[in-house]
Amino acid sequence: MTPFSARLAAIVLSSVLLLAGCSSARESEGGATTPSATASPQAVQGVGREAMAYVDAVNAGDLDALVASFAEGAEIVDVSRSIHGRAAIREWASNEVIGGRLTVLSIAQERQDGQRLLVRWAPGGSDGWRAHYDFTWANGRIVKADLQYA
Question: 118 and which of 10, 46, 76, 105 could share a cystine (Cβ 3.0–4.6 Å)?
Answer without folding.
Answer: 105
